[in-house]
Fold Coproporphyrinogen III oxidase.
Amino acid sequence: MTSPTAPTIAVIGGGVSGLTAARTLRRQLGADADILVLEAYDRLGGKLKTVDFADGPVDMGAEAFLTRRTGLAALVDELGLSAELRVPSGLHSCFYVDGQMVDAPARTIMGIPARGADVAGIVSAETAARIDAEATAEPLAWSVGDDVNVGTLVRSRYGGDAVARLVSPMLGGVYSASADSLGLRATVPALAAVFDDLASAGEPVRLSTAVSRLLAEREDAARALAATGEKPAPVFNSFVHGYRALIRALAEDADADIRLNTQVESVSRWRGRFWLEPVGEVDAVVVATPAPTAAVLLGDVAPEAGTLLGGIDLASSVVVGMRFDTDDGLPQNSGVLLGTDAPGVQAKAFTFSSRKWPHLAERGGAFVRASFGTLADASLVDADDRTLIGYAVEDLATVTGFTARPVETFVQRWWGGLPSYGEGHLDRITAVRDVLADSPRVALAGSVLQGVGVPACADSGRDAALKIIDDLSQS
Ligand SMILES: Cc1cc2nc3c(=O)[nH]c(=O)nc-3n(C[C@H](O)[C@H](O)[C@H](O)COP(=O)(O)OP(=O)(O)OC[C@H]3O[C@@H](n4cnc5c(N)ncnc54)[C@H](O)[C@@H]3O)c2cc1C
């Protein structure tokens, strides 16, 4: 079917991870390589989906990316898309606490404070006092390399109020999961690293001490930057015409044989090559699907990796996009996170997209995204559109007092949208990598590996392609 110099490589999954892998393969292997992108659905993009509203496109999955991880910015530049990038307004986000919107506290690490005073408007006075008292409490039992459930950690040191009102809403905004489903080392790695430092120096390990150290480092860095007269770079970027621009550019640059509506059912080794059902024979495979599907697809060629991936849960969620013809009364904030103990509301967060992104504000009116569903409770993902839109409108009015009716809506369900980075996740992923390192011409990419964010996914796609190229050069 092909000569050794012109391999046939299948990339399974047409999300950002798979498309970045395909594009890297094309750039490294040149025009001769036969690159297939096999996508189960009738469109590329996976969790990146841009929807056309009457006044312009809006993202209904990921809407932004963190600029701290620089690989994606470089990729965007190479793709000629830098002019598409936009920065946020800088308006603050809020928490919804006891029926009020209050500014998100500035001095926390993923919602974890060092002092009660920094979160006084959000947690009870007792909890604030308990946070302060932690500095002299019995130290944590911690050995270098340990991991812990974030909810268990924060509850044991600061109490349940801090978990429900601060940490779960913050982490939930990224992982669609409460702090009780997430591991510290994978989701707040800087804090785990400070715990390690304290333990290896023989110093007492306390949560407030470690958070204080991280906050001090952050503030020192901000002061040093201010002294240079430079402005801090924006933390987030988004695409003026939505993520669609990135997906299209990646697909174009990959110049691959893209097959939509092609669900790969199995991958097996066959006569020194691979047999993909129902596609046929190829020389190498990049699996770039969510973890449970990757588990099945790797089940034959790297069974131990398959078993490890099969143990990873996925969180489902729904985004309801709402366009309004007025923004009168919509708070001057970028959005609001609802605590897991917020009574009488179904939504877990609202993004006031037209406040957060000036390029959306320019269209006039307002745009709001409501989010529902968590790893622990995905029941609303199955609710019908009418119910979800009803909750979105009612909850928005309850939380903000903004009572306008949307003139256009879109309901996007994300079944299995995000992998849950539970306790021990990084060790599990290291074990998966070890297995795949010994599995020639098979690679894995996707949100389960290096982080759920788009930049991490793109990096994982590039790395998977480089592994395949290395393996091919040795065979
Ligand atoms: C609601 C939501 C909001 C988010 N917001 C942000 C954000 O603002 N910023 C950010 O950085 N990240 C965000 N993320 C995370 C980010 O969007 C995802 O982690 C990332 O897009 C995943 O990309 P991927 O290519 O790894 O996987 P996916 O996008 O899931 O792509 C995998 C593809 O594989 C296909 N597939 C599955 N099985 C098969 C099969 N058997 N055969 C063929 N194809 C198959 C699927 O159809 C899919 O297209 C968000 C995620 C969600 C759900």
Summary: Residues 48 and 364 are 24 Å apart (CA to CA). The chain has three domains: 8-46+248-312+422-474, 104-228, 314-418.
